[in-house]
Structures are given as structure tokens and as C-alpha cells.
Amino acid sequence: MATLDPDPAKLTCSFCGGTKPDLLCTRAALQVFRCKRCGIVHGETAKDDVGPAVPTDPSHFAFGVNNFPELVAENSNLLAKRMPMYRSMCKSDPKLWLEIGPGSGAYGEAISRFGGSWVGVEIDPDMARRAMELRQNVMEADFSGELPSKLLESNEVRANGGYDVVYFSQVLEHVTNPESLLKNVLAALRPGGTVHIDVPNHDGLTGMLRKLNWKSFGFGEIVPPHHMIAYNKKSLRALLQRTGFENIQPSTCAYSDDTFGLAHARLSQSSQLHRIWKLSRALRLGGNLLVLANKPN
Ligand SMILES: [Zn+2]
Hints:
By secondary structure, this protein is an alpha/beta fold. It has twelve helices and eleven strands. The strands form two sheets. The chain has a seven-stranded mixed sheet, sandwiched between helices. A hairpin with a 6-residue loop joins strand 2 (30-34) and strand 3 (41-45). Helix 3 packs across helix 4 (106-113) and helix 8 (178-188) packs across helix 10 (233-243). The longest helix is centred in the N-terminal third of the chain and has 23 residues, at 68-90. Bound molecules: zinc ion. Zinc ion binds at residues 13, 15-16, 18, 35, 37-38, 40.
């Protein structure tokens, strides 16, 4: 992250080196900047105010554990619809899957039921332990740095030339150095393999409402302390391009979308949230920003 500086003109983008970012807003101790060069939006707070970005909200983990069978069923529905797209991107049946930040591992369980071989790497020790208790093939490691070598050195991964698919959902916005994580993903994929990422859409309906609400401490999808980087189609594409991916296909959808939505959103009991998601679909301002891309052959 760029460091907080009283003069925004002196700020340098830690992603692309661009200088003099646009100051989008100042709210309480939060300043939000957009890099002129790469379009990345990042928030800066006074050091003692909210602390460093944390991996995720604990209530989200609890939901994953307490609703595991329902999440597996819902992820299986999503996966059945996504599978033709994965096959098309991979140009073969994807067999080897790596998930980064899998939470309880419900997506992995669904993949296993489709006959895939799946491993998850989880940064949160408590969540990793709980996923293992649910008998998921999860290892605990700090994926914001280098991926553990044992992930890349199993016989089946070596024989395949790497993973067919690397998947991470609602993770990249928590990582302070996304480019470093994406370089690791590129190294973990086989040539022609596919990455599937989703993050909150800074230009989506929920983000727009937060930009307009001056009482909100957050701005768009900058939500301290959880999300200090926000993406839109353009900046996410630029990030993947810089990292070396090709065939980059960003798109947006509602969180409740029946193909690329999020299982926990689709299971939400909140009629208010479902109304917002339906409206976001009608307005083409979906909150879920996803991207599919290939590692070059
Ligand atoms: Zn930049």
C-alpha cells in the first residue's frame, strides 16, 4: 500500500508506480485515492485508527461452518452451470483445482463431487482448522507471500504441469499486495490453465450507494478495515495484464446470480438484500466483479 502522506500529490501507487493519484474523498480519517495510470482505488487511514486490513469478517466464517451442507449443495448448482465455461477456458476437463482463501471449503467439496481433485490454502488459522474438521483438504499458509512449495510439488501437479484452475472468491480485495499473489497464481497454473477471481465491484450498486452516503465511513467498496483496495472491470483487467495473464474476461453480475453469484448470498434469508441484488441486475450494476483469464501456453 502507498503510505499516508499529508500531500496526496506525493503519493506513489504501489501497484504500478503511477504518481499524483486523484483524491476521490476524505471521510473522517479515511482518504480514498484512484491511480491515474492503472485505475486501482485504494484507501488510506491514519495508522492508529483502524489498523491494518484484516482477512475477513468472523461472522462470515461462522456462516460457512454452520451452513456447510447447504453451501455445498448451492455451490454444486453453481458449479454445474460454470463447468462448460471452465472446460472452454481450459480446453479440457479441469481435474486439478487450487482454491485460495476457501473458508470452510464448501466449493472444494462441490468440486470433489464433480470428480475434481481440490486443495485449499487458507490464511486464517482458525478457519483452516475448522475446514480440516469438516474433512476438507486445506492447508494453512500465508498466501499473501509465496505459496507453500508442497502445494506445487505433488506428483499429480507436477505431471499435469500445474493446476488446471486456480479459484479465489472475495479474497483479492483483502490482500495488500495483489500483484504478488497473482504472480504466485500464474506460477501455480499449468500453461493454458485458468484463473477465476471474484471481488466486490467498486462501480456496482452497493458501492454507488456507499459513495453517495456521506454518513458512511467507507467509500464505494473501500470498507475499512476489511477492504482497502477496490476494483472495477478496467483496473482488474489492467492488473491481470501486468501480471502476464491473457484472454482476460472481466464481467459483473448480481451477488444472487444463478451462475456466477455467491452461494452464501443465494442462501441469504434477507429479503431486503435480495431486493437490492435484483435491482442491481435490472440496472446492470451488479456488485460481483468476476474475471476469467488464462496463463499463456
Ligand atoms: Zn497504479
